[in-house]
Request: fold
Amino acid sequence: MKSSGVVRGNLCSRMPFASGAFPTFGLHGEQKHGIRVDGDTPVALGNVTMRHAGAGLLYVSGAILGNNQSVDDGGGASRPVTAADGQPDRSAPTVS
Amino acid sequence: MTLEGVRGASTLHVTLRNNTLLQLTADPLFTPFPDGVTIRDLILRGANQAQTYDDNNPRFAAGIYGNGTRRLLVERCTITQMGGSGIQLDAAREVVLRDNILRENWNPDQNAFADIGFFDGLEKATITGNWCLSENDTGISIVSIDDDAREVYIAGNVCSGHRRHGIIGNNGRGIPDGVRIEGNVCNDNKWMGIYLNGDLEPASGEPVSTGRTVIIGNTCSGNGESTSGDPGIRGGINVNGGFNVVVEGNECSGNHRAGIKVRGTRIVVANNVVRESEKLTVPGTPPTTYDGHGIELWAGGPAASARELTVSGNRVYQCAGHGLLLIGVPDAFYYQTLPTEPTERVVVSANTSVENEKDGIHTWRVWGQQVTANTCERNGEAGIRVRSSDERTLVPRTSARTTTSTRTQGTGGPTRGSTSKGAARRATRWW
Reply:
């Protein structure tokens, strides 16, 4: 049985900020992607992604996409997850 | 009976470290319950030494102790330097504690002593406007083994600087029913600001209206810096096993590991503001560093039909981890003998997650989720990441209710065991 998920109508943006001004953590790095869905049969509809260094939307095979908008995302509007992105991570989270 | 002093001038002083100052004790088998007692405007002062009983029993050396007490009012008292708890009540009903100051009741034993402590059931209690400032285990404790707390209102208290928790409910099991924790300030406690530690769901046969816990409008900041003991129990607000719980409108800032952490069934986390959660580094070889997430929700659990999570309208800023982290059904390989069921009806909507170190919203193996209308800006990694497992490692739902079968799961997974709550709880510690 597959899990399912719907990612819909979200706004993800990386607004410009001055170098060194990233709070708390120093200049940690740019936001990589707007949305990454690598669950089973995910659905991503009507999201807006803006100004990410990577792609606006990353997805895996079988994803259902529709009406997503990408604005000035450096890595393009959307593309499949590749090995360079790191494959879906099946490691367990930290539990204590 | 009324015992009333002149405010700020009347002091009762006990000089022996093992003696309780005002003892309302009744042995319920042989004597009537203390009924209708008012204690007002007194300073109760102890010997400023920890009691010496080997078992560190909070029933001894308290400022006020009662067993089976009915209709007790304690107001405007200062209770200080006791060798045990400030106020300790067992099996109490119809209790009002208001506007008291409890400080320097500093017995260091970890598991017993509170400024205000209830044990073995509490029913119809109002605990308001108290200052719990001692460096003892807990500010306000309504833990119970045999009976759940019912109809308890804890509001407007300040619980600060305790060795573990500001406010704690339950003791690893049970479902508090009708507990409202509102408008308290819990800061700089070493483990949790507010910690509710109960069952994931009611026992069979209990009505679905059980629970009704509301944690609303509290301020929890700077909690969880201790590196000793279980590092999973750290943060601002932690509902570790709850049913019918609302966590709303709280402000959590600068807590270690998580601003708000929730696990249970039928949980609503809404309109909270969480900022600047910090990492926790536990010394060791090598040291272990845990992220400081904004809001962390555990939807799945051992033998639990954890469902119906709503995470809505929260604002999370500048946390040293994910802004919102939702963790769903685990696989049998990792959780070994614990059977699981999938999460269902998880809604993550209208949250704002900004400038967190990792993802704005990160979900992991949450089934049937709706992530809608959220705003994520300037997070360190992805704005939203929906992360799942390979389906081969998921536990098929059709087998989730298996109670006695033995099988392996995934790649050489372990053997399943009993699904009883007790067995599951004994099998592992989740937090």
Observations:
- Residues 331-340, 389-431 of chain B have pLDDT under 50 and may be disordered.
- The radius of gyration of chain B is 22 Å.
- The helical segments of chain B are 332-335, 421-427.
